[in-house]
Amino acid sequence: MTKDAPINLQMDPGRQCQEAVELVRLRLEQVGFSGKKPVWLACLKEVNEANRIANSDLLLSQIPKKDLPAATSKLDSLKLSIDALRDAVRNEDIKSTLAAQDRAAQELYEIRLLAMKPGLPYEVPKDVASGLPILKGRATVEMTIRRPKGSKPFTLDDGTKADTLPLSLVVDGYRSPVTAGNFVDL
Q1: Bridge partner residues of 40 (DSSP)
Q2: In angstroms, rounded to a whole number, what is the distance separating the alpha carbons of residues 68 and 17?
Q3: Alpha carbon of 89 to those of 32, 68, 76: distances in Å?
Q4: Sign (positive/negative) of CA torsion 66, 108, 103, 54?
Q5: What kind and span of H or E run contains 79?
Q6: What is the DSSP letter of 76?
Q7: If DSSP codes are grouped into helix, strand and coil, which group holds residue 138?
Q8: CB of 42 within 8 A of CB of 80?
Q9: Cβ of 28: how many Cβ atoms within 10 Å?
Q10: What is the pLDDT of residues 83-122, one digit of tens each?
Q11: Does residue 135 contact residue 171 with C-beta atoms inside 8 Å?
Q12: CB of 147 within 8 A of CB of 164?
């Protein structure tokens, strides 16, 4: 997106913090949770970036005044979760890292929800959306993935095996209303 777009992701501190928190898990997933030193150092860099943003006033700058007390409380929780994430990464403790990353991501998501304005920040062109479902906001889609009989089971984060895998997706119609609408419709 350009700097003149209605949603400028480069200038969105919430998105920047979210990206840093998400990269911790992504980096570890890419190497199979093997605990390689350079990966842990890269994770620590991301945690420090999330911490820098969380400890500035940037995350609260887009919050409506009526929601500021709730957002401030959530931000305090986020800072504690980021501290726990930093400790877990420094200790190279995968289980604690994943748990703290989940908490931090959820708390950041809740802060970002408070900053969202109702409706879309732009119009969807009629020629693009003609006859297509449009999602104006966010939706949570719950689904279960099932392995075919006789196939290898899923290995869950805790090491257990299962034939089914619950999946919860948050579909973002603010950023992609037509794609999100199509996904939810399917």
Answers
A1: none
A2: 19
A3: 15, 31, 20
A4: negative
A5: helix 68-90
A6: H
A7: strand
A8: no
A9: 22
A10: 999 999 999 999 999 999 999 999 998 998 888 776 666 6
A11: yes
A12: yes
